[in-house]
């Protein structure tokens, strides 16, 4: 599974900007 920068930023915001 390849994680895109957009996904990372989205995941960071969903997790609390600090993952």
Q: How far do the termini sit from each other?
A: 18 Å
What spatial form do the alpha-carbon principal axes imply? elongated
Task: Specify the biggest β-sheet.
Answer: none
Over the alpha carbons, how many angstroms does the gyration radius reach?
8 Å
Structural class: mainly alpha
- What is the percentage of strand-forming residues? under 5%
- Please, what is the average pLDDT? 77
GO molecular function, one term: protein heterodimerization activity
Summarize the structure.
This protein is mainly alpha-helical and 19 residues long.
Question: What would you note in describing this structure?
Answer:
The protein is mostly helical and 19 residues long. Helix content is 58%, strand content 0%. It contains 1 helix and no strands. The N and C termini lie far apart (18 Å).
């Amino acid at each position: 599974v390849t994680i895109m920068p957009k996904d990372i930023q989205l995941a960071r915001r969903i997790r609390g900007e600090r993952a």
